[in-house]
Amino acid sequence: xxxxxxxxxxxxxxxxxxxxxxxxxxxxxxxxxxxxxxxxxxxxxxxxxxxxxxxxxxxxxxxxxxxxxxxxxxxxxxxxxxxxxxxxxxxxxxxxxxxxxxxxxxxxxxxxxxxxxxxxxxxxxxxxxxxxxxxxxxxxxxxxxxxxxxxxxxxxxxxxxxxxxxxxxxxxxxxxxxxxxxxxxxxxxxxxxxxxxxxxxxxxxxxxxxxxxxxxxxxxxxxxxxxxxxxxxxxxxxxxx
Length: 241
Known about the structure:
Blueprint: H1 2-10, H2 12-27, H3 33-50, E1 53-58, E2 70-73, H4 80-87, E3 93-97, H5 106-113, E4 116-118, H6 123-138, E5 143-144, H7 167-172, E6 176-182, H8 186-189, E7 196-202, H9 208-211, H10 216-237
Parallel strand pairs: 1-7, 2-5, 2-6, 3-4, 3-5
Antiparallel strand pairs: 6-7
Helix pairs in contact: 1-3, 2-3, 2-5
């Protein structure tokens, strides 16, 4: 990937310094995930700038006042988590699929943040992850999980949102924050190093009182609807090239 190579080249010496601190955060129990998040965030901001990627975050005021919420974005590509790590002012962990859990740097980042690994082929293990996330959210931690379950590979078009993903929110009775990613597939999925702006819309949250009587499939449909509307509104207002 050309852009990843550019990031590494432009941050070659700094990369060792930040990689060391991220590893330390993930290996020592006396270091909080908030501290780990600070190191990961600094590294992400530097890497995105080195890779000529600008993050335009909208709707930060929509984040709940108290911690203990879950971010539910559409899933476009490998760059998605970096958009949140740069733009989100609140520490969060994420759920990552088993296949990507041991990729270098990603492995160290997930450990530093206390993120969870999900085996999508193992229903029992997946449900255990959902339960663990719900328990952590009840304690005041924030999480990010992709309800599509996999990258759409269709640009700014979304796939079906899986209802089971929202069981964690229902169990935790926490705010659900729909998030619309736009052009996040470009940085790592296109063979280019041209400057690019990725947009992220933090939409108004659904609170437990709003969805407590809904089935998880209905919640999934509502979150998808809001994200699709946000993407359509952005594309309608974007200047034509």
